[in-house]
Amino acid sequence: MYHKKHKYDIIIIFAVVTLCISLFLAVSEALKITVPCDLTGGCEAVLTSKYSRIFGIPLAYLGIVFSGSVILTGLLANHYLNFRRLLTWLLGFGALFSLGFLIIQFFVLKSVCQYCLVVDVLTIAMFLWDLNIEHISLAV
After folding, report:
1. Torsion angles phi and psi, residue 54, rounded to 5
2. How far apart are the C-alpha atoms of 81 and 100, rounded to whole Å?
3. 33 φ, ψ to 5°?
4. pTM score > 0.70 for this model?
5. Strand partners for 58
6. CB pairs under 8 A, 24+ apart, for 35-43?
7. Domains, the chain, ranges and CATH?
8. Per residue in 62-116, pLDDT tens?
9. What pLDDT score was predicted for residue 35?
10. According to the 3-state scheme, what is the secondary structure of 26-46?
11. Rounded to the nearest 5°, which phi and psi values hold at 35?
12. Alpha helices, DSSP H only, in the chain?
């Protein structure tokens, strides 16, 4: 079992992973480099689809902003209640968007990007981890 003070540390670790993946995808987008896609084979279809941008901004760039915000808010959530609440809202919105992106990949595009899949699953996992608010110990 984990101590509840480490709850935000785990969220931060997950957010660092999503930040690294988003940075990789953003650099690939900026340099117009095709990313390797050995596991799912659908990265090119997903990353070049009309769903890969919101208001003309690549989702990888928004992923950098989101992950950076989660890291910063998670660091502050260790010490301040208001940032704990902000983190929950931020992760909730991120999880909703991630769920939408997964639906688009699986049911609309019928192609899956392995990098996007990891980011989306980790974002949902961060939200679920954040909802696990209290550590309950059973005294025997």
Report:
1. -120, 120
2. 29
3. -100, 135
4. yes
5. 53
6. 35/115, 37/113, 37/114, 38/114, 39/114, 40/111, 40/112, 40/113, 40/114, 40/117, 41/111, 42/105, 42/109, 42/111, 42/112, 42/113, 43/113, 43/114, 43/115, 43/116
7. 4-130 (1.20.1440.130)
8. 999 999 999 999 999 988 999 999 999 999 999 999 999 999 999 999 999 999 9
9. 95
10. HHHHHCCCCCCCCCCCCHHHH
11. -80, 145
12. 7-30, 43-47, 59-77, 81-103, 114-131
Neighbours of 68 (CB within 10 A): 16
Report the amino acid identity of residue 108: V
pLDDT tens-digit series, residues 119-129? 999 999 999 99
Q: Tell me, what amino acid is at 79?
A: H
In which residue are the tokens 């990007």 written?
113
Kindly tell me if the per-residue pLDDT of 5 is higher than 70: no
Closest CA to 26 of 53, 55, 64, 56: 64
The whole-angstrom separation of Cα 127 and Cα 74 is: 12
* Best CA proximity match to 124, nearest among 66, 83, 62: 66
